[in-house]
Amino acid sequence: MSQLLDERQQERPSEPAREYEPIQPERRWRDLGRRALAPLAALAALLAKFKALALALFKLKIFATSGSMLVSVAAYAWLWGWKFAVGFVALLFVHELGHVLELRRQGVPASAPLFIPFLGAVVGMKQMPANAWREARVALAGPILGSIAAIPFWIAGAALDSSLLTALAFTGFFLNLFNLVPVVPLDGGRAVAALSPLLWAVGLAMLVALVLVWHNPIGLVILLLGGFELWRRWRERKDPDKAAYYRVLPWQRAAVAVTYVGLAAALLVAMTETHVPRTF
User: Fold this and answer.
1) pLDDT at residue 32 is higher than 70
2) Do residues 120 and 92 lie in contact, with contact meaning Cβ atoms separated by under 8 Å?
3) With a threshold of 0.90, does the pTM exceed it?
4) 153-184 as b/e, with b when 16 or more CB fall inside 10 Å?
5) Is 67 a domain residue?
6) What CA–CA distances, in Å, run from 3 to 6, 7, 9, 10, 11?
7) What domain range includes position 187?
8) Residue 80 and residue 85: Cα distance in Å, rounded?
């Protein structure tokens, strides 16, 4: 019986192999969803690339400097107009650039200038210069380069008979002369550290007189900072490490004194020559 069944199965023709997949119901909603999300995915990829670029730029501190410059221009333009504001911020930038260049020349890591409206600009240092002689060179580099930057405004103002350009030259000279007041945190206070600590007290007295005459709140802020810094340095005067920091050779002291006094005198003459009534 089993043999008969086997013979019948052998006689039955074999079924052909299937060459197709079973038909599945179409899911159109999934296709529509993918098509709708495709632009969003492309946008997300683009934003990811833009974020990487933005982070790279922020690491270079481009936005920190340029953004603070724009804010300062807007603040000064509110008082003096945008033309004067642009020139004034440019003069500030060159002044601070002098500090940056000298710091980096000495191998001291320094950040790009950060502008603070109505207070000027600051440069960040990860460490102090090696001694008071080098600190004085960093301090004087700003007023020297800043004063040089004001000269083209003076020349252009005289050539074009422009009160605006001449006023910018005067402001640049005044800005750098004011920074030579011998009190920290101004450049003059850092420069005279290579001469004599007694000059800090003279600078503090000068600043008190300026505040009483002008009633300027910015001068009051500098006065407070200068007072605290003077007190701190006076308390540390007997520290052996601090004493070594302020030990300066005679020729270095003479070089700082000649540069400091000569620059201040030149700026006074330049201010006299560029002083004009404000007519803009």
Assistant:
1) no
2) yes
3) no
4) bbeebeeeebebbbbbbbbbbbbbbbbbbbbb
5) yes
6) 5, 6, 10, 11, 13
7) 56-274
8) 7
